[in-house]
């Protein structure tokens, strides 16, 4: 199973990817997470990535493509993968199209998570995560049991630096300019599955699994 999760920032890609990873037993590859780990370790790549991410911009295609290529040839990807947040531009999609046959893989589906801008903003400003185990929370839809603390490690939850309303609005603009054209790109190539992301998490995951099985 080789999947791409497409959708605006805050559309739930990461949340559903974690569930699908368990269900299908394939790795979840989030370019955003890879960049955040590099930023946390203050690597050269992290410093470069942060200069874009803090402004709500995308990291350069060549840098991002190289990271994905390195990740997809790791042994845990033999049975498949779930790409979350990649591709995000037409050049990235073309890069993936060229890379996959070279490494003996092909896509089964691209899942477009449909959501309105208002809901994106509402979700993102309420998004929190555990810095230790990385579990995601939402102050409205997925509250921690104890206020502000992780259910698993009791760590104080944190908000991503790029999850402010101001940066989210910039990220949405970037999404419409750079990423939305991918919907047409993948619809034309017959990969597209559209899923309503404005439903409870379990229902969305179920819809995705049913859509994949119908395939
Ligand atoms: P979200 O989907 O909520 O925007 P991500 O964690 O997927 O969050 O991405 C966070 C940031 O990392 C993006 O705003 C962008 O700057 C950078 N990034 C992630 N994936 C890519 C990509 N494929 N190409 C360029 N930049 C990326
Ligand atoms: Zn935790």
Layout: helices, strands, pairs:
Blueprint (H helix, E strand, L loop, with lengths): L1 E6 L5 H12 L3 E3 H10 L3 H10 L7 H12 L8 E4 L5 H13 L6 E6 L2 H9 L1 E3 L6 E3 L26 H15 L1 H8 L3 E5 L4 H14 L1
Parallel strand pairs: 1-3, 1-4, 2-3, 4-7
Antiparallel strand pairs: 5-6
Helix pairs in contact: 1-9, 2-3, 4-5, 6-7
The structure holds adenosine-5'-diphosphate and zinc ion (ZN).
Number of strands: 7
Low-confidence stretches: none
Question: Which class best fits the helix and strand makeup?
Answer: alpha/beta
Please outline the major beta sheet: 5 strands, parallel
Q: Provide the gyration radius in Å.
A: 17 Å
How much helix, percentage-wise, in residues?
40-55%
- Calculate the terminal CA-CA distance, rounded to whole Å: 12 Å
Proportion of residues in extended strands: 5-15%
- Provide the residue-averaged pLDDT: 95
Strand order of the largest sheet: 2-3-1-4-7
How many separate helices? Answer: 9
Q: How does this structure look, described?
A:
The protein has helices at 13-24, 31-40, 44-53, 61-72, 90-102, 117-125, 165-179, 181-188, 201-214, and strands at 2-7, 28-30, 81-84, 109-114, 127-129, 136-138, 192-196. The protein has 215 residues and is of the alpha/beta class. The strands form two sheets. Strands 2-3-1-4-7 form a five-stranded parallel β-sheet, sandwiched between helices. It has a two-stranded antiparallel sheet with strand order 5-6. The longest helix has 15 residues, at 165-179. It is globular. It starts with a strand and ends with a helix. The relative contact order is 0.19. The model has no long low-confidence stretch (mean pLDDT 95). Bound molecules: adenosine-5'-diphosphate (ADP) and zinc ion. Adenosine-5'-diphosphate binds next to helix 2 and helix 3. Adenosine-5'-diphosphate is lined by residues 9-10, 13, 30-32, 35, 52-53, 57-59, 64, 85-86, 88, 92, 162, 171.
């Amino acid at each position: 199973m080789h999947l791409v999760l497409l959708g605006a920032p805050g559309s739930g890609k990461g949340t559903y990817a974690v569930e699908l990873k368990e269900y299908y037993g394939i790795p979840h590859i989030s370019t955003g997470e890879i960049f955040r780990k590099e930023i946390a370790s203050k690597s050269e790549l992290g410093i470069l990535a942060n200069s874009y991410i803090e402004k709500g911009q995308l990291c350069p295609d060549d840098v991002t493509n190289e990271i994905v290529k390195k990740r997809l040839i790791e042994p845990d990807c033999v049975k498949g993968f779930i790409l979350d947040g990649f591709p995000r531009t037409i050049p990235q999609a073309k890069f993936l199209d060229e890379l996959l046959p070279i490494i003996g893989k092909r896509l089964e589906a691209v899942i477009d998570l449909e959501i309105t801008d208002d809901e994106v903003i509402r979700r993102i400003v309420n998004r929190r995560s555990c810095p230790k185990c990385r579990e995601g929370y939402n102050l409205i839809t997925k509250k921690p049991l104890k206020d502000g603390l992780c259910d698993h490690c009791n760590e104080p939850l944190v908000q991503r630096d790029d999850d402010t309303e101001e940066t989210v609005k910039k990220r949405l603009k970037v999404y419409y300019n750079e990423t939305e054209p991918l919907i047409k790109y993948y619809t034309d190539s017959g990969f597209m599955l559209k899923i309503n992301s404005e439903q409870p998490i379990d229902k969305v995951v179920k819809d995705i699994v049913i859509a994949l099985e119908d395939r």
